[in-house]
Design goal:
Pfam families: Coprogen_oxidas. This is coproporphyrinogen oxidase. Homodimer. This protein is α+β, with helices and mostly antiparallel strands. Helix content is about 35%, strand content about 25%. Strand 2 and strand 3 form a beta hairpin.
Length: about 280
């Protein structure tokens, strides 16, 4: 993405010394006011902690309080052009060591697309790549993880999805460590194939203040989801993670309005009627 943007990403390496409740290291790569990306970044982290935070044991109460190790890569890109969608991708592994019991390891990850102006071609391409990345691991994985993504990236307080979804899975340990690792790697490797063709198709599309205004409004939904519902954000903050890296996912310019609705029949209304609905894209 640095080559596509044309602007060097800032490299920010960090380290948490041993002795605290969280130790480890990582690297953040970030761009602001780039040629393509208004804001975007990619985080790598490898940390160990004395106690799993509540967000990580929500579905595994037997691991509450256990020491843990976590490894992950996450990225979010917010393009300037409203016709280029925002995208998120994350892959991660967690291992917990409950007292007097064997180590428990599981994986999570996925990617999802958040357009401001929808295009059927883009939605079908993104989902088709996601399906292909999961196909070696069973025909059930894409429909299962697509549905999981639709359910997860949903703003319950707004009764609307964040975008057009993609795939999402968590607490995955089926088939053992090697199978989980291979699937996680396949998802991560598929990201550029899923996103870059969309960027290249839309980045030169002309836009004006109307489109930018709507983009800022819809970005508000992105912020609301990440701060209210996202388990990754909660895990980072609850475990004492690096705030600057955790909140890197936030868009740079956002707008809220009171009880606003797009004009019926407008391109903005089309996002709601044709794309922010549960659909089978691939």
């Amino acid at each position: 993405m640095q080559a596509e943007d044309g602007t060097p990403f800032v490299r920010d390496a960090w380290e948490r010394p041993s002795g605290g409740r969280l130790e480890g290291d990582g690297v953040s790569r970030l761009v602001e006011e780039g040629g393509l990306l208004e804001r975007g970044g990619c985080n790598f982290s490898h940390v160990k902690g004395t106690q799993l935070p509540p967000s990580a044991t929500q579905h595994r109460p037997e691991l509450a309080g256990a020491p843990f190790e976590a490894l992950g890569v996450s990225l979010v890109f917010h393009p300037r052009n409203p016709y280029v969608p925002t995208v998120h991708m994350n892959v991660r592994m967690l291992a917990a060591q409950p007292a007097g019991a064997p180590m428990v390891t599981w994986f999570g990850g996925g990617m999802d697309l958040t357009p401001y102006y929808g295009f059927e071609e883009d939605a079908r391409h993104f989902h088709s790549v996601c399906r292909h990345a999961l196909s070696p691991f069973g025909d059930d994985k894409y429909p299962r993880f697509k549905h999981w993504c639709d359910d997860y990236f949903f703003l319950k307080h707004r009764n609307e999805p964040r975008g057009i979804g993609g795939i999402f899975y968590d607490d995955f340990a089926e088939g053992g460590f090697d199978n989980g690792f291979a699937m996680m790697r396949s998802v991560g490797d598929a990201f550029l194939e899923a996103y870059l063709p969309i960027v290249q198709r839309r980045r030169a599309t002309a836009y004006g203040e109307r489109e930018r205004d709507f983009q800022a409004y819809r970005r508000g939904r992105y912020v609301e989801f990440n701060l209210v519902w996202d388990r990754g954000t909660l895990f980072g903050l609850q475990s004492g993670g690096r705030t600057e890296s955790i909140l890197m996912s936030m868009p740079p310019l956002v707008k809220w309005r009171y009880d606003w609705h797009p004009e019926p029949g407008s391109p903005e209304a089309g996002l709601y009627t044709d794309f922010l609905v549960a659909r089978d894209w691939a």
